[in-house]
Specification:
Largest sheet: 7 strands, mixed
Number of helices: 6
Number of domains: 1
CATH superfamily: Vaccinia Virus protein VP39
Structural class: alpha/beta
Distance between the termini: 28 Å
Strand order of the largest sheet: 3-2-1-4-5-7-6
Strand content: 15-25%
Order of helices and strands: HHEHEHEEHEHEE
Helix content: 25-40%
Number of strands: 7
Radius of gyration: 16 Å
Length: about 200
């Protein structure tokens, strides 16, 4: 059994906003980047309560790489922002502004409960972040912004910093209820550059 399968077998998900299959994809792709020796930080835009964040930290710990690979997370901790016209979908009407709000304190408490070192946390809307808030070089980016503007803003921030051989994963890329994620992604990448796995858009750079 590989490391990420072992982690998924040992630890439970702490929310229903991501599936076990999706976490497996994230950990597998992160493992590929780490095995390839790609230099740079790990970043996550949109961490919610910390389900994927916890597994990313566990993988870095299991590989003995937490000490020298920076791990940054970014979130408003105020729930979903307001939708744009690109996010309109009759199947996504339940996604409203303010939904899925979790405080930074709650997020950090999950790391405390799991006896894990928390990542470097940046609180704020993605549109208000500047390039100085982003690591100089990024090896792996997981973007879970749900809506068009959030994915657009996070891509604007991370793409200039992505290292050769790095990977970007877009959550909800092929989800009918959240069409804005794909729209924003296609402003940067062609469909030929994107592999779709369990609604995740995987981009190898």
């Amino acid at each position: 059994m590989n490391v990420f399968d072992s982690l998924l077998a040992k630890h439970s998900l702490i929310s229903d906003q991501v599936s076990k299959q999706q976490v497996e994809v994230i950990l597998r792709e992160l493992t590929r980047v780490l095995d390839g020796g790609v230099e740079g930080a790990v970043v996550e835009f949109g961490c919610y309560i910390g389900t994927t964040s916890l597994f990313i930290r566990r993988l870095l710990d299991a590989r003995g790489q937490s000490a020298y690979i920076p791990f940054h997370v970014y979130d408003s901790f105020e729930g979903l922002p307001t939708k744009s016209t690109w996010d309109a979908s009759i199947t996504g009407e339940q996604f409203t502004a303010g939904e899925l709000a979790v405080s930074k304190k709650q997020f950090l408490r999950e790391f405390q409960k799991a006896h894990l070192q928390p990542p470097i946390v940046h609180k704020g809307w993605f549109k208000d972040l500047s390039p100085t808030d982003i690591p100089d070089k990024i090896a792996f980016a997981f973007l879970d912004g749900d809506f068009y503007e959030s994915i657009r803003d996070s891509l604007r921030l991370v793409v200039p910093h992505m290292a050769h051989g790095s990977t970007i994963i877009i959550d909800d890329y092929s989800r009918e209820a959240l069409p804005g994620a794909a729209k924003a992604t296609h402003e940067y990448f062609s469909t030929a550059e994107i592999t779709v796995v369990h609604n995740l858009g995987v981009i190898h750079l």
